[in-house]
């Protein structure tokens, strides 16, 4: 019975991480980069998968061994660092949740023709309902699994109907015509950046899967989460590649929707509505849960009323979207800050991995450390460059 219960939590954490990553931005990025790089985008996906796995294994293993949430680990590395990281995570999570709510509203608009604002309210109600249940954690796990599997099935169907050049995609995955560093950084940041890095790790910790004895389970869950997100990305890439390779032009205002429509007609367009809705609602849940998990260490009230704080987080996101739409300036700044979060948090985790006061006699794998340092350096450089580029636009 224990093994069965653990598998449920492991898959729940994996799907929570994966579906948190697969939001409206994920769908758009994948489609746009496929249009730009064609079959060579396969190399970008492969590279990002390897880097993503390295990031998640570093973070989840240290959280499990230390038996502490990331902000508490950070405070042990440097007093006050946990509070700083928490502010970044919560602000980034709130800003992107506004976009996720908007994406869910768009999904309802595509499916039923109602206004995006009305759709956003319905989507928020669905997300809130998950946390009104007594055993919200189990419901959240199962909801993420069902929605994740639904997205995979629908995207696989659209990929098949678009008849992509699979052979060319395989060849260019290992021998690309062009290597685009910015697209790799964007994919890594979008899959394991910001709050997403900690969604599954915190879920496992909250479910009691922790300590050195649980490392094999943690590894399985972390890799599973990346693979679920990657499967969705790969088949969306193939669907878009099939459309682009036929010489068809994507609608610049909504690239992923046009992929579904061009590949499978009006039925495809409706399927896009289902995928967008599933991606957005699961991202709303993942963002709210993970953001609030960063506040629990600083207030007993938050810890004792966690579900109500999560509900409040979702309600505020929805209210902002309905009141002022998607605040472009806020999203621009949050996007740059989200990219900065990964090198800060991963760098902190790498320091913690070698601090005996945090991890005891645990020996962190050298290969994971090398991977981690590489990601920290590259993401710090690219995120800093992006932030400097976007700040003048923000205040102009």
Automatic annotation (TrEMBL):
Q: Where is the signal peptide?
A: none
- Just give the chief location class: membrane
Classification via InterPro entries:
NRAMP_fam
| Keyword presence, Transmembrane | yes
Membrane topology, from the record:
Multi-pass membrane protein
Where do transmembrane segments lie in this chain?
Answer: 37-55, 76-98, 110-131, 143-161, 181-201, 222-247, 267-295, 307-324, 330-354, 366-388
The name this protein carries in UniProt is NRAMP family divalent metal transporter
Q: Where is it located?
A: Membrane
Pfam families per UniProt: Nramp
Q: Which organism is it from?
A: Pontibacter silvestris
User: rRNA-binding: present as a keyword of the record?
Assistant: no
| PANTHER family reported for this sequence | SOLUTE CARRIER PROTEIN FAMILY 11 MEMBER, TRANSPORTER PROTEIN
Q: Which residues form a coiled coil?
A: none
């Amino acid at each position: 019975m224990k093994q069965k219960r653990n598998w449920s939590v492991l898959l729940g954490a994996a799907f929570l991480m994966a579906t948190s990553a697969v939001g409206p931005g994920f769908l758009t990025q994948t489609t746009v980069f496929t249009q730009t790089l064609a079959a060579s985008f396969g190399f970008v996906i492969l590279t990002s998968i390897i880097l993503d796995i390295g990031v998640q294994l570093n973070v989840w293993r240290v959280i499990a061994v230390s038996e502490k949430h990331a902000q508490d680990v950070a405070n042990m590395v440097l007093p006050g660092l946990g509070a700083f990281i928490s502010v970044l995570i919560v602000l980034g999570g709130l800003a992107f949740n506004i976009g996720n709510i908007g994406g869910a509203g768009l999904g309802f608009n595509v499916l039923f023709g109602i206004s995006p604002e009305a759709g956003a309210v319905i989507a928020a109600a669905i997300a809130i309902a998950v946390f009104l249940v007594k055993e919200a954690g189990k419901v959240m796990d199962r909801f993420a699994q069902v929605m994740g599997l639904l997205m995979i099935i629908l995207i696989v169907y659209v990929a098949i109907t678009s008849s992509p050049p699979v052979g060319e995609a395989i060849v260019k995955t290992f021998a690309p015509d062009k290597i685009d560093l910015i697209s790799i950084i964007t994919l890594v940041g979008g899959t394991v950046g910001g709050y997403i890095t900690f969604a599954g790790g915190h879920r496992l910790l909250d479910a009691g899967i922790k300590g050195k004895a649980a490392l094999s389970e943690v590894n399985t869950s972390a890799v599973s989460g990346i693979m679920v997100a990657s499967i969705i990305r790969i088949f969306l890439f193939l669907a878009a590649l099939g459309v682009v390779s036929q010489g068809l032009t994507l609608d610049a205002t909504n690239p992923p929707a046009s992929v579904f429509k061009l590949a499978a007609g009006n039925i495809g367009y409706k399927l896009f509505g289902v995928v967008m809705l599933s991606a957005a609602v699961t991202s709303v849940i993942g963002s709210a849960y993970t953001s609030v998990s960063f506040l629990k260490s600083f207030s007993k009230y938050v810890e004792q009323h966690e579900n109500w704080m999560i509900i409040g987080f979702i309600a505020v996101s929805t209210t902002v979207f309905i009141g002022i739409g998607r605040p472009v300036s806020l999203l621009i700044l949050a996007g740059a800050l989200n990219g900065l979060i990964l090198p800060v948090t991963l760098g902190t985790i790498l320091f913690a991995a070698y601090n005996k006061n945090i991890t005891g006699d645990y020996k962190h794998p050298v290969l994971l450390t090398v991977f981690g340092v590489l990601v920290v350096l590259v993401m710090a450089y690219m995120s800093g460059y992006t932030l400097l580029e976007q700040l003048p636009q923000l205040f102009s």
